[in-house]
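Entry: Glucose 1-dehydrogenase
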Amino acid sequence: MTDLQGKIGIVTGGGSGIGREVALTLAKRGAHVTIADISEEGGNETVQLIEALGAKALFVKTDVSRLDDVKNYVHTTLNMFSRIDMFFNNAGIEGQVMPLADYPEELFNKVVDINLKGAFYGMKYVIQAMLKNGGGAIVNTASNAGIVGSPGVSPYAGTKHGVIGLTKTAAGEYAAQNIRVNAIAPGPTATNMMERFTQGSEEAHNQVKAGIPAGRYGTPQEVANLVAFLLSDEAPIINGAVYPIDGGLTAL
Protein backbone atom coordinates (compact mmCIF):
# COMPACT_ATOMS: atom_id res chain seq x y z
CA MET A 1 0.00 0.00 0.00
CA THR A 2 1.01 3.59 -0.62
CA ASP A 3 2.77 4.97 2.46
CA LEU A 4 1.38 8.30 3.67
CA GLN A 5 2.85 8.13 7.17
CA GLY A 6 2.64 11.46 8.95
CA LYS A 7 1.22 13.40 6.02
CA ILE A 8 -1.56 15.93 6.55
CA GLY A 9 -4.60 15.91 4.31
CA ILE A 10 -7.90 17.72 3.85
CA VAL A 11 -10.94 16.01 2.35
CA THR A 12 -13.98 18.08 1.43
CA GLY A 13 -17.24 16.20 1.30
CA GLY A 14 -15.62 13.73 3.67
CA GLY A 15 -18.78 12.98 5.59
CA SER A 16 -20.05 10.32 3.18
CA GLY A 17 -19.52 8.43 -0.05
CA ILE A 18 -16.27 8.73 -1.96
CA GLY A 19 -15.02 11.48 0.36
CA ARG A 20 -15.37 9.31 3.44
CA GLU A 21 -13.72 6.33 1.75
CA VAL A 22 -10.77 8.47 0.66
CA ALA A 23 -10.39 9.93 4.16
CA LEU A 24 -10.36 6.45 5.70
CA THR A 25 -7.92 5.17 3.10
CA LEU A 26 -5.53 8.06 3.77
CA ALA A 27 -5.76 7.38 7.51
CA LYS A 28 -5.16 3.64 7.06
CA ARG A 29 -1.96 4.54 5.22
CA GLY A 30 -0.68 6.79 7.99
CA ALA A 31 -2.09 10.25 7.29
CA HIS A 32 -3.94 12.66 9.58
CA VAL A 33 -7.03 14.20 8.02
CA THR A 34 -9.31 17.23 8.25
CA ILE A 35 -12.88 16.47 7.23
CA ALA A 36 -14.73 19.45 5.74
CA ASP A 37 -18.42 18.79 5.18
CA ILE A 38 -21.76 20.53 5.52
CA SER A 39 -23.13 17.57 7.50
CA GLU A 40 -22.09 17.63 11.14
CA GLU A 41 -23.39 14.10 11.69
CA GLY A 42 -21.56 12.63 8.71
CA GLY A 43 -18.38 14.60 9.30
CA ASN A 44 -18.12 13.69 12.97
CA GLU A 45 -18.82 10.05 12.18
CA THR A 46 -15.94 10.01 9.70
CA VAL A 47 -13.67 11.55 12.34
CA GLN A 48 -14.63 8.80 14.80
CA LEU A 49 -13.88 6.13 12.20
CA ILE A 50 -10.47 7.69 11.52
CA GLU A 51 -9.59 7.96 15.19
CA ALA A 52 -10.51 4.30 15.62
CA LEU A 53 -7.75 3.57 13.11
CA GLY A 54 -5.23 5.38 15.32
CA ALA A 55 -4.90 8.50 13.16
CA LYS A 56 -5.68 12.10 14.12
CA ALA A 57 -8.67 13.83 12.58
CA LEU A 58 -10.80 16.92 12.97
CA PHE A 59 -14.14 18.01 11.55
CA VAL A 60 -14.82 21.50 10.25
CA LYS A 61 -18.42 22.27 9.30
CA THR A 62 -18.18 23.72 5.83
CA ASP A 63 -20.32 25.06 3.03
CA VAL A 64 -17.73 25.10 0.26
CA SER A 65 -19.67 27.78 -1.63
CA ARG A 66 -18.90 30.21 1.20
CA LEU A 67 -15.44 31.75 0.97
CA ASP A 68 -15.14 32.27 4.72
CA ASP A 69 -15.93 28.59 5.34
CA VAL A 70 -13.18 27.53 2.94
CA LYS A 71 -10.66 29.85 4.57
CA ASN A 72 -11.72 28.41 7.92
CA TYR A 73 -11.03 24.76 7.05
CA VAL A 74 -7.63 25.74 5.71
CA HIS A 75 -6.73 27.87 8.73
CA THR A 76 -8.07 25.30 11.21
CA THR A 77 -5.96 22.58 9.61
CA LEU A 78 -2.85 24.76 9.72
CA ASN A 79 -3.50 25.66 13.35
CA MET A 80 -3.69 22.00 14.35
CA PHE A 81 -1.19 20.34 12.01
CA SER A 82 1.03 23.27 10.85
CA ARG A 83 0.96 22.27 7.18
CA ILE A 84 -1.11 20.74 4.37
CA ASP A 85 0.47 18.01 2.24
CA MET A 86 -2.58 16.60 0.45
CA PHE A 87 -5.95 17.96 -0.62
CA PHE A 88 -8.87 15.94 -1.97
CA ASN A 89 -11.10 18.68 -3.37
CA ASN A 90 -14.23 16.62 -3.61
CA ALA A 91 -17.41 18.25 -2.30
CA GLY A 92 -20.18 18.60 -4.85
CA ILE A 93 -23.84 18.15 -5.66
CA GLU A 94 -25.61 16.74 -8.69
CA GLY A 95 -28.53 19.15 -8.88
CA GLN A 96 -31.69 17.90 -10.54
CA VAL A 97 -32.28 15.94 -13.74
CA MET A 98 -34.07 18.03 -16.37
CA PRO A 99 -33.41 19.55 -19.82
CA LEU A 100 -31.24 22.65 -20.00
CA ALA A 101 -34.02 24.96 -21.24
CA ASP A 102 -36.17 24.03 -18.23
CA TYR A 103 -33.42 24.30 -15.62
CA PRO A 104 -34.20 26.87 -12.88
CA GLU A 105 -31.61 29.64 -12.72
CA GLU A 106 -31.42 29.52 -8.92
CA LEU A 107 -30.61 25.81 -8.94
CA PHE A 108 -28.07 26.27 -11.72
CA ASN A 109 -26.35 28.93 -9.63
CA LYS A 110 -26.32 26.65 -6.57
CA VAL A 111 -24.61 23.85 -8.51
CA VAL A 112 -22.06 26.31 -9.89
CA ASP A 113 -21.42 27.83 -6.46
CA ILE A 114 -20.73 24.47 -4.82
CA ASN A 115 -19.09 22.45 -7.60
CA LEU A 116 -17.04 25.09 -9.40
CA LYS A 117 -16.60 28.06 -7.10
CA GLY A 118 -16.12 25.73 -4.13
CA ALA A 119 -13.40 23.86 -6.01
CA PHE A 120 -11.72 27.14 -7.00
CA TYR A 121 -11.83 28.54 -3.46
CA GLY A 122 -10.32 25.34 -2.08
CA MET A 123 -7.50 25.27 -4.60
CA LYS A 124 -6.74 28.96 -4.08
CA TYR A 125 -6.26 28.81 -0.33
CA VAL A 126 -4.74 25.34 -0.11
CA ILE A 127 -2.19 26.24 -2.80
CA GLN A 128 -1.26 29.34 -0.82
CA ALA A 129 -0.55 27.10 2.19
CA MET A 130 1.33 24.52 0.11
CA LEU A 131 3.58 27.19 -1.36
CA LYS A 132 4.70 28.04 2.17
CA ASN A 133 5.59 24.44 3.04
CA GLY A 134 7.40 23.57 -0.17
CA GLY A 135 4.74 21.78 -2.18
CA GLY A 136 1.97 19.24 -2.03
CA ALA A 137 -0.53 17.26 -4.05
CA ILE A 138 -4.14 18.03 -4.98
CA VAL A 139 -6.76 15.77 -6.49
CA ASN A 140 -9.96 17.38 -7.72
CA THR A 141 -13.15 15.41 -8.23
CA ALA A 142 -14.49 15.89 -11.74
CA SER A 143 -16.74 13.25 -13.33
CA ASN A 144 -17.28 11.31 -16.51
CA ALA A 145 -19.78 14.15 -17.08
CA GLY A 146 -16.76 16.46 -17.25
CA ILE A 147 -15.34 14.51 -20.19
CA VAL A 148 -18.43 13.88 -22.32
CA GLY A 149 -21.91 15.36 -22.51
CA SER A 150 -24.42 14.26 -19.90
CA PRO A 151 -28.01 15.01 -20.98
CA GLY A 152 -30.29 16.08 -18.16
CA VAL A 153 -27.63 17.47 -15.82
CA SER A 154 -26.28 20.47 -17.72
CA PRO A 155 -25.01 22.48 -14.72
CA TYR A 156 -23.37 19.40 -13.21
CA ALA A 157 -21.66 18.58 -16.50
CA GLY A 158 -20.66 22.22 -17.02
CA THR A 159 -19.10 22.52 -13.59
CA LYS A 160 -17.22 19.24 -13.92
CA HIS A 161 -15.80 20.36 -17.27
CA GLY A 162 -14.78 23.51 -15.41
CA VAL A 163 -13.04 21.53 -12.66
CA ILE A 164 -10.93 19.83 -15.33
CA GLY A 165 -10.01 23.25 -16.75
CA LEU A 166 -8.98 24.48 -13.30
CA THR A 167 -6.96 21.31 -12.75
CA LYS A 168 -4.94 21.59 -15.94
CA THR A 169 -4.34 25.31 -15.54
CA ALA A 170 -3.18 25.06 -11.92
CA ALA A 171 -0.91 22.13 -12.79
CA GLY A 172 0.89 24.30 -15.30
CA GLU A 173 1.09 27.28 -12.99
CA TYR A 174 2.51 25.52 -9.93
CA ALA A 175 4.50 22.51 -11.16
CA ALA A 176 7.77 24.42 -10.68
CA GLN A 177 6.82 25.01 -7.03
CA ASN A 178 6.44 21.26 -6.42
CA ILE A 179 2.64 21.30 -6.36
CA ARG A 180 0.86 18.65 -8.39
CA VAL A 181 -2.80 19.00 -9.39
CA ASN A 182 -4.68 16.09 -10.93
CA ALA A 183 -8.33 15.15 -11.33
CA ILE A 184 -10.36 12.00 -11.17
CA ALA A 185 -13.44 11.49 -13.33
CA PRO A 186 -15.57 8.80 -11.70
CA GLY A 187 -18.38 7.22 -13.62
CA PRO A 188 -21.39 5.69 -11.90
CA THR A 189 -20.24 4.70 -8.42
CA ALA A 190 -22.14 2.88 -5.68
CA THR A 191 -22.93 5.91 -3.51
CA ASN A 192 -25.99 7.81 -2.34
CA MET A 193 -25.61 10.12 -5.32
CA MET A 194 -26.38 7.24 -7.68
CA GLU A 195 -29.37 6.35 -5.55
CA ARG A 196 -30.65 9.89 -6.04
CA PHE A 197 -29.92 9.84 -9.78
CA THR A 198 -31.86 6.61 -10.24
CA GLN A 199 -34.44 7.37 -7.51
CA GLY A 200 -33.69 3.92 -6.14
CA SER A 201 -35.24 2.22 -9.16
CA GLU A 202 -33.79 -1.23 -9.92
CA GLU A 203 -34.76 -0.77 -13.55
CA ALA A 204 -32.89 2.54 -13.71
CA HIS A 205 -29.83 0.97 -12.05
CA ASN A 206 -29.86 -1.83 -14.63
CA GLN A 207 -30.14 0.65 -17.50
CA VAL A 208 -27.11 2.56 -16.23
CA LYS A 209 -25.08 -0.61 -15.74
CA ALA A 210 -25.98 -1.80 -19.24
CA GLY A 211 -24.18 1.22 -20.68
CA ILE A 212 -20.95 0.53 -18.79
CA PRO A 213 -18.55 -1.88 -20.55
CA ALA A 214 -17.58 -3.38 -17.18
CA GLY A 215 -21.25 -4.05 -16.51
CA ARG A 216 -21.21 -2.66 -12.97
CA TYR A 217 -20.77 0.43 -10.86
CA GLY A 218 -17.42 1.35 -9.43
CA THR A 219 -16.94 1.24 -5.67
CA PRO A 220 -15.82 4.09 -3.41
CA GLN A 221 -12.79 1.99 -2.39
CA GLU A 222 -11.68 1.65 -6.02
CA VAL A 223 -11.83 5.42 -6.35
CA ALA A 224 -10.04 5.92 -3.03
CA ASN A 225 -7.16 3.68 -4.08
CA LEU A 226 -6.54 5.88 -7.11
CA VAL A 227 -6.80 9.10 -5.12
CA ALA A 228 -4.37 7.87 -2.46
CA PHE A 229 -1.85 6.96 -5.16
CA LEU A 230 -2.14 10.35 -6.88
CA LEU A 231 -1.69 12.16 -3.56
CA SER A 232 1.36 10.09 -2.64
CA ASP A 233 5.06 10.43 -3.33
CA GLU A 234 4.73 7.44 -5.67
CA ALA A 235 3.25 9.72 -8.36
CA PRO A 236 5.83 12.54 -8.49
CA ILE A 237 5.72 13.15 -12.25
CA ILE A 238 1.93 12.83 -12.65
CA ASN A 239 0.57 16.35 -13.00
CA GLY A 240 -2.33 17.90 -14.88
CA ALA A 241 -3.85 14.49 -15.66
CA VAL A 242 -7.51 13.49 -15.65
CA TYR A 243 -8.19 9.87 -14.74
CA PRO A 244 -11.51 8.32 -15.77
CA ILE A 245 -12.52 5.61 -13.35
CA ASP A 246 -15.70 4.43 -15.00
CA GLY A 247 -15.42 0.85 -16.21
CA GLY A 248 -14.68 2.00 -19.75
CA LEU A 249 -17.76 4.24 -20.06
CA THR A 250 -15.98 7.23 -21.58
CA ALA A 251 -13.70 5.06 -23.72
CA LEU A 252 -16.54 4.34 -26.16
